[in-house]
Design a protein that fits this description.
Elements (H helix, E strand, L loop, with lengths): L2 E4 L11 E13 L13 E5 L8 E4 L3 E8 L18 E3 L36 E6 L8 E6 L11 E7 L7 E11 L7 E6 L8 E4 L2 H8 L7 E4 L14 E3 L6 E8 L7 E5 L4 E6 L2 E9 L1 E4 L4 E7 L11 E8 L9 E9 L27 E3 L6 H5 L14 E3 L37
Parallel strand pairs: 1-2, 2-5, 4-9, 10-15, 14-22, 19-23, 23-24
Antiparallel strand pairs: 2-3, 5-7, 6-8, 8-9, 10-11, 12-13, 15-20, 16-19, 16-21, 17-18, 17-20, 21-22
């Protein structure tokens, strides 16, 4: 039998398998407390264990995950799409081969979990719902995943977090996690106003606003047009939040950044690191042939990339920390409409941080229109000329060759990593007619 341990102790791998147990509850709260301040404005949010993103789940190959989950949403969390206060938990990328009831898809694999609070005496559910999976048998190889609510727009309002399965054995890298999400005016006003990195961001002197028709276009993925208005929350001398700080404690070592696109709508985000190149080594939890000397990485909703950065030994020890820059267009079909941008700090020993920094509304120092972008991985596939002129495999192995690299030209390593994913032979599919409901509900 596997040894049962608190989940928070499972981030260090052992030579024996464990049952890693986490206790989660989802609550409706305000963004008024450290750990869930988001971009500094106070609004309603949904938070696992009181924080955004939720607590990182980090386990190892061979471990079993158990998440004892409670829905503690009190009152009514009104979402733009009208979704209710019922909820589920979904492990994004895990196949759940032996326990499909733990996949968290409402009215497909389970009924949503009703709130247990006193506000809902008729629906009171005093028992936690046991989510989880076994990395050995449930299609869960080592890699970068994430978890989130699968009900309505709940993850848009903060119900998400990182899920990491580490390989056993000595790791060649020092790990960092970057969870990216576009953030909205409120749970009912879905105008994109900022970008969060690990739940941290800021709004500037001006902020987006838009009409209902444009919001609807945005939510349908067709591109909405927004205007800037004066931001009543902006006070350059009294920021409520700081940007994420990634500390480089061992200059010269190679750091792995597990980048998770916890993106809600059609809002791809581009990541770059000032004065650093990086190499992509994995995509969506699967290893790929390393793609070297990259300057930019685009991520869409749900995508994950592992990138490695060889940190500097020689740097300005009294200078300002480097910026990890994240940018996204507010309208994918009209780039002239502008975008949103944010940073995290990449801080070496001795470097300083400008805690008064905030990008201007035009994102002028993000270089997003410059032709000097040399090697971009996974660009938004909406430009046939860029696709036609892309760097194809294996030409991108030449680090001096500039251009765009699309995922169609990525390759799995020749020495394939071990995987618990197997083909489902003799799979049978059952067709349901239009009169079938889920437990008489849908």
């Amino acid at each position: 039998p596997k040894k049962t341990v608190p989940g928070e102790q499972c981030d260090i791998c052992t030579d024996y398998p464990r049952k890693c147990v986490f206790d989660f509850k989802l609550e409706m709260l305000k963004s008024d407390t450290p750990g869930r301040r988001a971009d500094g404005r106070i609004r309603s949010v949904l938070a696992y264990n009181g924080q955004i993103p939720g607590p990182p789940i980090v386990i190892c190959e061979g471990d079993e995950l158990v998440v004892n989950f409670k829905n503690d949403i009190t009152g009514n969390m009104t979402n733009m799409d009208g979704s209710s206060s019922g909820t589920t938990l979904h492990f994004h990328g895990i196949r759940e081969k032996t326990r499909p009831w733990s996949d968290g898809v409402p009215f497909v694999s389970q009924c949503p979990i009703t709130p247990e609070g006193q506000d809902h005496p008729k629906n009171r559910n005093p028992f936690p719902f046991p989510y989880g999976f076994n990395t050995d048998v449930d299609g869960a190889p080592a890699g970068t995943y994430w978890y989130h609510s699968h009900v309505g727009a709940q993850r848009t309002n903060g119900a998400y977090g990182a899920l990491i399965i580490k390989e056993k054995g000595k790791d060649a890298y020092i790990d960092k996690i970057l969870v990216l999400q576009e953030w909205y005016e409120s749970s009912t006003n879905q105008v994109p106003v900022s970008i969060l990195i690990n739940g941290n961001g800021r709004t500037g002197e001006y902020i987006n606003t838009g009409e209902d028709a444009e919001i609807t276009k945005h939510l349908k993925g067709k591109g909405g047009s927004f205007q800037l208005k004066k931001n009543k929350y902006f006070d350059r001398n009294n920021f409520k939040t700081n940007y994420e700080e990634c500390i480089i404690g061992e200059p010269g070592r190679t750091y792995r950044f597990r980048v998770i696109g916890a993106i809600s709508q059609n809002f791809p985000l581009r990541l770059s690191i000032d004065d650093h190149k990086f190499t992509a080594i994995a995509m969506d939890s699967r290893k790929i042939e390393p793609v070297p000397y990259l300057t930019d990485l685009w991520l869409a909703a749900g995508e994950r990339y592992d990138i490695v950065v060889k940190t500097k030994r020689a740097y300005n020890k009294s200078g300002e920390a480097f910026k990890i820059k994240v940018f996204g267009y507010t309208n994918q079909y009209n780039h002239s409409a502008g975008g949103l941008c944010t940073i995290a700090w990449l801080k070496y020993p001795g470097q300083t941080i400008d805690y008064n920094y905030v990008p201007d509304s035009a994102c002028t120092d993000f270089d997003h229109l410059s032709p000097l972008r040399l090697r971009t991985l996974n660009p938004v596939p909406n430009n046939y000329a860029a696709w036609k002129n892309r760097i194809q495999y294996p030409n991108w192995k030449n680090p001096s060759k500039p251009g765009d690299i699309f995922i169609a030209d990525l390759r799995e390593p020749k020495s394939k990593s071990k995987s618990t994913i197997t083909n489902l032979a003799n799979t049978q599919y059952i067709e349901f007619d239009g009169n079938i409901t889920f437990n008489g509900l849908r």
